[in-house]
Write a structure and sequence with these properties.
single chain, mainly alpha, globular
Length: 123
């Protein structure tokens, strides 16, 4: 069931095949918001990397879009393109699937950061 869920999302990503231009994908959802479809795709790349590579696989790597650990940087898609955002996200999806395929079990509990929340591999 988890594998089906994980495989579903890469095919249903926002803006992946709807013909929107980079400018349209960068457009904010509301005037006061910084969220755009492209920012959401960048956020998805950070979620994949953090959940699977940094937490479950315990890799000591930076975020995709921020060397300082600032998760909010992903939402700023003002200088981003469809190609860059989707390539980053797809690369992280591939890493995640490799980790999932190679895992003995997804019945793992990982700590997302010392003293913080526990993360279940199988959710």
């Amino acid at each position: 069931m988890l594998r089906s869920f994980l495989d579903y999302h890469p095919r249903r990503s926002p803006g992946s095949d709807d013909g929107l231009s980079d400018e349209e994908l960068r457009r904010q959802s509301m005037p006061a918001s910084t969220l755009s479809l492209l920012g959401l795709v960048r956020h998805l790349a950070e979620v994949e990397r953090t959940r699977f590579r940094r937490v479950i696989n315990a890799e000591d790597i930076p975020l995709v879009f921020s060397d300082t650990g600032d998760f909010q940087v992903a939402y700023d898609a003002s200088g981003s393109s469809r190609t860059e955002a989707f390539a980053a996200w797809q690369a992280e999806v591939e890493h995640s699937r490799r980790i999932e395929r190679d895992a003995e079990s997804l019945d793992v509990i990982a700590i997302s950061a010392p003293g913080t929340r526990r993360v279940a591999g199988a959710w």
